[in-house]
């Protein structure tokens, strides 16, 4: 193979980027002509911001001409107090996916391996490939959950980082305390385990651990959280990690300077202060999840136990057909061709319409 530069081809880009899968955002709802149009494709919170949160954001908008607080000090202080952790253990970023990308930058490069379950959050293969490291994808169990034994068996000398998505996107299944602790105890101490808890506020299974309890005496565990889901700030891009010093410090080193806007910082602080009301909304979404799962089960679907704000239907070959039927009815869902459909829990009317559509489709199977 010739290494001769070919000027007419433009700048040379990193080979690692070749064939990178594109991140597919949840499709927006089309609507029009008075037709209903609900977006259940991105696991967003359907509620508008709480009043105090909106006011904080509007007030911050007054100083757009200034850079934000680079240390994100008010938010970090608030989070440290809430979780009872040192401020130095918190690192923020542009959404938890931004923090995840920094974690890879800090740990992994060409020749290294990153282990995660598959199917899981679709950003993992993308950000791993960008880092130059190699993805090691471990299939989910028959029940659509993490196979932690198989993940452990996949760890080699090259492994630098393991993602455990708990609950898992897109299947909603969650790993329980005993099995997770056993796994963490067995992973080599020099491998970073990232507990991605983007949906933890929706967990109602008492056996599912809070990652922050697990990180405390484990220097190789990092917990990822986000304000995008339960807190309803997806559009503002703010997430954070809780990890011991060398990891948290590395995250601060690799973060994009001024990545989290002042608007996002202030809105996040305000939403933590409005948490009681906010979590009431989360409770309502969990009630809706229970109702949707019961209705789908009564229709004859097998639905994995979801601990998140979405449900998963394994439709195989019929996936795209089902998604098209939902769209025609006015509900946009998130299909994974050949595998299944992930449907966010949204407003009551949207959930009703989805359940009705699923019932009609089921009869035709
Ligand atoms: C498991 C998981 N982690 C992280 C994220 C990223 O969220 P954000 O970057 O908005 O914080 C998502 C978003 O869909 C997710 O599903």
TrEMBL record:
GO molecular function: histidinol-phosphate transaminase activity
CDD domains the record matches: AAT_like
Modified sites of kind N6-(pyridoxal phosphate)lysine: 229
Cofactor(s) listed: pyridoxal 5'-phosphate
InterPro entries according to UniProt: Aminotrans_II_pyridoxalP_BS, Aminotransferase_I/II_large, ArAT, HisP_aminotrans, HistidinolP_aminotransfase, PyrdxlP-dep_Trfase, PyrdxlP-dep_Trfase_major, PyrdxlP-dep_Trfase_small
Keywords, in A-Z order: Aminotransferase, Pyridoxal phosphate, Transferase
Ranges for region Disordered: 22-43
Domain of life: Bacteria
Primary enzyme class: transferase
Keyword Transferase: yes
Enzyme Commission designation: 2.6.1.57
Gene3D superfamilies reported in the protein's UniProt record: Aspartate Aminotransferase, domain 1 (3.90.1150.10), Type I PLP-dependent aspartate aminotransferase-like (Major domain) (3.40.640.10)
Domain Aminotransferase class I/classII large: 39-346
HAMAP family: HisC_aminotrans_2, Phe_aminotrans_2
Subunit structure: Homodimer.
Function summary: Aminotransferase that catalyzes the conversion of aromatic amino acids and 2-oxoglutarate into corresponding aromatic oxo acids and L-glutamate.
Family affiliation: Belongs to the class-II pyridoxal-phosphate-dependent aminotransferase family.
Name listed for the protein in its UniProt record: Aromatic amino acid aminotransferase
Species annotation: Streptacidiphilus cavernicola
Organism phylogeny: Bacteria, Bacillati, Actinomycetota, Actinomycetes, Kitasatosporales
